[in-house]
Amino acid sequence: MRSAGLAAFRDSLRAILHVQASRADEIQDWEQVKLLSVQVNRLQRWWRPGLLCIGDAAHAMSPVGGVGVNLAVQDAVAAANLLAEHL
Questions:
Q1: Which residues pair with 51 in a beta bridge?
Q2: pLDDT at residue 17 above 90?
Q3: Which of 8, 35, 48, 56 is buried most deeply by CB count within 10 Å?
Q4: 76 and 51 in a common domain
């Protein structure tokens, strides 16, 4: 990507940004471009006596779009619904 040049990179961004295509023009230097490596991992077992893993502790998600926080809240609600009576 770098060998193609910054202008080519901005053009590729414009193709996917659609509504905010002009935002690509804000990139003036390669120092403004960062690579985010994302992995989606999950535990084989999410609990043990005295411990329940929820959210990213149980299943790491991409930070794009706030998916991880939404799943963490869903995990907390599901855990509360299942455990509240027993606790």
A1: 48
A2: no
A3: 56
A4: yes
Q: What is the 3-state secondary structure (H, E, C) of 31-72?
A: HHCCCCCCCCCCCCCCEECCEECCHHHCCCCCCHHHHHHHHH
62, 39 in Cβ contact below 8 A? no
Residue 3 clears pLDDT 80, i.e. is over it = yes
- Does a structural domain hold residue 39? no
Q: Model confidence over 51-85: pLDDT tens digits?
A: 998 887 887 776 777 777 888 899 899 999 999 99
| 38 domain-assigned | no
Asked whether residue 37 is assigned to any structural domain, the reply reads no
Task: Tell me whether residue 3 is exposed, middle or buried, using C-beta atoms within 10 angstroms of its C-beta: 0 to 12, 13 to 18, 19 or more.
Answer: exposed
Number of domains in the chain: 2
Structural domain including 70 reads 47-83
How far is it, in rounded angstroms, from Cα 40 to Cα 56?
10
